[in-house]
Amino acid sequence: MAAVTASGPAAVRGRAGLGGVIRSELTKLKSVRSTWWTLLVLVLLSIGFSALICAVIKANWHTMSASDKATFDATSTSLGGIGFLGPLVIAVLGALVITSEYSTGMIRTSLTVMPRRSVMFAAKGVVFGLVTLVLALVLSFLSFFIGQALLGDHSATLSHQGTMRAIVGTAIYVTLCGLLAYGIGVILRHTAGTITLVVGILFVLPIIINLFPSSWHNAIVRWLPTSAGDAISTTVGTNDHMFSAWGEMAVLGVYVVIVLIAGATLFRTRDA
User: What is the pTM of this model?
Assistant: First the structure.
């Protein structure tokens, strides 16, 4: 008797790898209009705000006190847009990367296609983190060069001590803030709630701490996530109540790692 051979599509063997999921997540990120609008806002605010600050300072330089001129930080000033407003904008995108799928129900489809949740979680974080880091680096350098051109005789150069650290560190700071929002988004699974909490951490909490007595403030300020941005972008003077620039970045990094671990754990164990 002749053997009967089953016809039909060949069985798929192996497991979906991280590389394929990264390509899928990158396509997904590029295909959403909110991504492009958010990144456009980041570009305009980062460069525009920094340019405005530098232009105003140059125009009013003669009215500044001698002490203000002596402590003027040209590098930090030119990075004000990306360093101050950048985390807010990128936090919105970090939240949307994951919460938008929960709000539309697409997360069920994504998990059906890619049931390995840890791989999917990692792929989303890698894609978002790399895109943010590359753009933040470009914007940091552009903000610096445009700002120094506007400051004229009061400008700094890349060879000045701390300048490269400030530019690259600011880009890393913005990226870490975005990953913080991504991790919180996975935990809360709600866009508005995630953005509200991140804004509270990055903007409201420092204001509240400033209202405390100086002894309390000085003891707490080094542990704030936003202290990393202040410390890494400063090239003139130091704050005795903070860790070193990279020490403060390490503090923020620990917060991000804790949130991502919590997010990854919940992403793997909770129903979609």
Answer: 0.90
